[in-house]
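Quick question: what would this complex look like in 3D?
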Amino acid sequence: MTSWLSEVSWNEDGLVPAIAQDAETGKVLMLAWMNRDALALTAEEGYVVYWSRSRQKLWRKGEQSGHRQKLISLHLDCDQDAVLLKIEQQGGIACHTGRQSCFYRQLIDDKWQTVDPVLKDPATIYV
Amino acid sequence: MTSWLSEVSWNEDGLVPAIAQDAETGKVLMLAWMNRDALALTAEEGYVVYWSRSRQKLWRKGEQSGHRQKLISLHLDCDQDAVLLKIEQQGGIACHTGRQSCFYRQLIDDKWQTVDPVLKDPATIYV
């Protein structure tokens, strides 16, 4: 393991939050988590690998859906406890609901309202 | 407390990660944390309030520096465990190092390299 991985302040579970942002449009697509292996593999393979907290395993984003995230650049914050991934979103869909971004709800009139459309039926994404 | 706050999946510490993004340029400025009170106050006051994990208190961003974050819109992700704040960054500086964004380090040649300039000496920001 290379030393840049040791400069990340992993939390008590050995994880760091990772923001995925479309490198071209600037749209924030999702927030997920990475452990040391996930971050190392992301840099090595050039495609984003997260740590799935629910499944407790490495999650090569898009392994089922084909909606992989090609890494453009990798950034670390001042406290070294969050990373920002600028990526190219294959298929234009990051969210498992079939939307471009996971942040498709907006607070309007004290309600979370869905403001982004489903681009592809999840039933046809995960076959 | 209004019900939209109850739709957020707070973690075991009662917190949720919050991404601050410049509403105009799309630049991701920082990731910090909010508890229920912080998120409620952010919506109420129209300026971003975080929960400082190091100081264990509410943190009205910019209370010392003047670099407040005016809330433009508030977004929730599919798992309801992360929020995205589109904001207007007063003073153009989000980071305590005097930089625009906290994500000023980029991985280049297996090293975290500082790629963004200090816009203002922190010593003159925090007086």
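Answer marked as accepted. Chain B is about 10% helix and 35% strand.
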